[in-house]
Amino acid sequence: MSEQSGNYNAENIQVLEGMEAVRKRPAMYIGDTGERGYHHLVYEVVDNSIDEALAGYCSMIDVTINPDGSLTVQDNGRGIPVDLHPTQKRPAIEVVLTVLHAGGKFDGSNYKVSGGLHGVGVSCVNALSEWMNVEVKRNGKVHRMEFSRGHVTKKLEVVGECGDETGTKVTFFPDHTIFSCRAFKWEILVNRLRELAFLNKGVTIHFRDDEGEAHHEETFHYEGGIDEFVGYLNLNKKPLSPVIHFEGSKEGTTGMVQAEVSLQYTDSYSTLEQTYCNNIHTIEGGTHLSGFRRALTATIKKYGLDNKLLKEKEFDSLTGDDMREGLTVVVSVKVPQPQFEGQTKTKLGNGEVDGIVGSIVSDRLMTFFEENPSVAKIVIEKTLLAARAREAARAARESTRRKGVMDGLSLPGKLRDCSERDPAKTELFLVEGDSAGGSAQTGRDRATQAILPLRGKVLNVEKARIDRMLANAEIRTLITAIGCGFGEEWDVSKARYHKIVIMTDADVDGAHIRTLLLTFFYRKMPELIDRGYIYLAQPPLYKVERKKRTEYVLTDGELTERLLTLGLDDFEVKNAAGDTLARDNAAELLKLLAEIEATSKMLEERGFDPKAVFEDAAAQGGGASMLKKQFSSLSAMGFTPGDWFGGKLKKLLDDVRSHGRQGLSIYRFKGLGEMDADELFDTTMNPAKRHMLQVKLEDAVEADRIFTLLMGDEVEPRRKFIEDNALNVRNLDI
Ligand code: 0RA
Question: 269, 240 in Cβ contact below 8 A?
Answer without folding.
Answer: no
